[in-house]
Amino acid sequence: MAERRREHGPHGGAGPETARAWTALVAAARRTVSDGLVVGTSGNVSVRVGDLVLVTPSGVPYDRLTPDDVTGVDLAGRQVLGTLAPTSELPMHLAVYRATDARAVVHTHALYATAASTLVGELPAIHYMSAALGGPVRVAPYATYGTEELAGNMLRALDGRSGCLLRNHGAITHGTTLDQAYDRTAQLEWMCRLWLTASSVPGRTPTLLTPAQLARAADRLRGYGQRP
Fold first, then answer.
1. Terminal-residue alpha carbon distance, the chain
2. Which of 22, 46, 109, 159 could lock onto 70 through a cystine, CB 3.0 to 4.6 A?
3. Are 167 and 141 in contact (CB under 8 A)?
4. What pLDDT does 29 receive?
5. In this structure, what is the dihedral angle of CA atoms 199, 190, 175, 128, given to the nearest 10 degrees?
């Protein structure tokens, strides 16, 4: 059994950087609820600080989390901060950090993403923001939640991508910052809603973007935003 310990002092004994990261994580987790991406505790958020992974705890409403509830594990999954059990989806979060340069992961059971995951093997290229996730969004085959099998299915669907759908389950995205990971989750949910809405019009079939059109959008997106 993984060792758990509650460090003493402010923020569960965490240093300033870890304490700031935990505060941002809790704010993002609460936002998933207020933005309608999560019902209750049905999603999870994590951030990586060095070799430490801070993650939302299992089954605890986000509005009840305090600075002293900081929950952290190492990359092997051993708990090194806090006494609350980490999310049951820890294998997915750790798999992303081991395989990519991600610094944040957001997983939700968002309505439209979950609905789309039951209908297709890949989200059709309904909008150029698919390019922001690396290309057409794949759907990982179903596996029981919290298992290494699900984590493996997810990694294969994420190959070359920063987000994927999970069959009959939800969505997961990652980014180099928590804001980026969250924005990708929100964009993915919006694209799923867009596709479901357009494809539900009787007698009409949505037009889709070609690979060449997506490639041009990807080039444009690489220069999007303010430069330092």
1. 46
2. 22
3. yes
4. 95
5. 60
Backbone phi and psi for residue 35, each to the nearest 5 degrees, phi listed first: -85, 0
Contact by Cβ (8 Å): 123, 140: no
Contact 68/12 with Cβ under 8 angstroms?
yes
Cite the beta strand spans of 118-160 per DSSP E: 139-140
> Rounded to 5 degrees, what angle do the CA atoms 100, 128, 92 make?
25
Tell me the residue type at 167: R
- In the residue annotation, 122 being an active-site residue is answered as no
As given in the structure block, the two tokens for residue 164 are 């994927």
- Dist. CA 62–CA 85, nearest whole Å: 14
Segment 130-180, tens digit of pLDDT: 999 999 999 999 999 999 999 999 999 999 999 999 999 999 999 999 999
Q: Which of 89, 148, 149, 189 is catalytic?
A: 89
Indicate the pLDDT class of residue 5, thresholds 50, 70 and 90. Answer: very low
Give the C-alpha separation, 18 to 6, whole Å: 14
Tally of CA atoms within 13 A in the half-sphere of 113 that contains its CB: 28
Task: Count other C-beta atoms under 10 Å from residue 59's C-beta.
Answer: 11
**Which residues lie closer than 8 Å to 132 by C-beta, 6 or more apart?**
162, 184, 187, 218, 221
> Which phi and psi (to 5°) does residue 169 adopt?
-145, -60
**What is the rounded CA–CA span in Å between residue 27 and residue 4?**
24
